[in-house]
């Protein structure tokens, strides 16, 4: 199969386009929060990404002839990549508290063997703070169940974007999804493994920053394959906002919600992280330097005998008691 093409941040420039005809009342689930069970949950609406960027607004429909269970499934007509892509997000009409769940479950199949580019949650056409992404998921003609873990469920107490998708392929095909819901998975079976690359960085005090490097989050999928959770594109790592970052010397360096390390005072600090209560392997050593201008001034050219210097090297500075220009101890006629 040809290399994947759709490695784009489809949500950033996305324009919600309402998809009609998907509002039958769904059955109540046994557990968890349903997104789609024979129909989209009341108040959950599929919206296409911006057609001006190539999204096919007619790609998604409800298939009442094919399902994993019940009577219906989500049908996605994935176009050939030269014709655009199938992409959109399912939005809740009010914030959803997902803190009692820890995974998004779904069943998937396709008209032929294919690789689905991007699936996830946390995309609400606004800030992508908690966006989660499962990239390059293999699909077959058999129904297979998968899940995407919520890195830290305590962060998702007011989520609007409950399911998003984006895919194109060299040749068109059809993908189906069914029984999509948030639910609770046994943490032992998920086997979350989070790491941060051991690294060093130097930042200044003039607004410089360095991103946290090499965050990863891997887990065991329901098909027995270990997969990764990314944030914006394959290999981007999980969203930093799910983590608590700790500075060994917080007066020297801190970390913002986007995982950017910034300097506060010249010195050195070690940055570590926790995901929920678990310590993340790895650390980042940050050296904060004093401010230095990006461009240094030209070297002085006047002979020393013509200069009375206060600070400038290579001249010898003249001691001054008071910097005021009218002070008797201040030089009265200093050359530049």
Ordered list of secondary-structure elements with their pairings:
Layout: E1 17-18, E2 33-36, E3 44-48, E4 60-63, E5 73-78, E6 86-96, E7 103-110, E8 114-121, E9 132-139, E10 144-149, E11 159-167, E12 173-183, H1 187-190, E13 193-195, E14 199-203, E15 209-211, E16 216-220, E17 226-228, E18 243-247, E19 253-255, E20 260-263, E21 267-275, E22 278-279, E23 284-288
Parallel strand pairs: 14-23
Antiparallel strand pairs: 1-3, 2-12, 3-6, 4-5, 5-12, 6-11, 7-10, 7-12, 8-9, 8-11, 13-16, 15-20, 16-17, 18-21, 19-20, 21-22, 21-23
Strand content: 35-45%
Structural class: mainly beta
Which fold name corresponds to the CATH topology of the largest domain? Answer: Jelly Rolls
Which word captures the global form?
elongated
User: Approximately how much helix is present in the residues?
Assistant: under 10%
- What series of H and E elements makes up the topology? EEEEEEEEEEEEHEEEEEEEEEEE
Q: Biggest β-sheet, characterized?
A: 6 strands, antiparallel
The rounded Rg comes to 28 Å
CATH class of the largest domain: Mainly Beta
User: Unreliable stretches, pLDDT < 50, 5 or more residues?
Assistant: 1-14, 20-28, 327-336
Query: How many β-strand runs?
Result: 23
Number of helices: 1
Summed up:
The chain is an all-beta fold.
Structure description:
This protein has 336 residues and is mainly β. The chain has three domains: 17-185, Sandwich (Jelly Rolls); 190-288, Immunoglobulin-like; 304-336, no CATH class. It has one helix at 187-190; strands spanning 17-18, 33-36, 44-48, 60-63, 73-78, 86-96, 103-110, 114-121, 132-139, 144-149, 159-167, 173-183, 193-195, 199-203, 209-211, 216-220, 226-228, 243-247, 253-255, 260-263, 267-275, 278-279, 284-288. The protein has a six-stranded antiparallel sheet with strand order 1-3-6-11-8-9, with no helix packed on it. It is elongated and about 95 Å long.
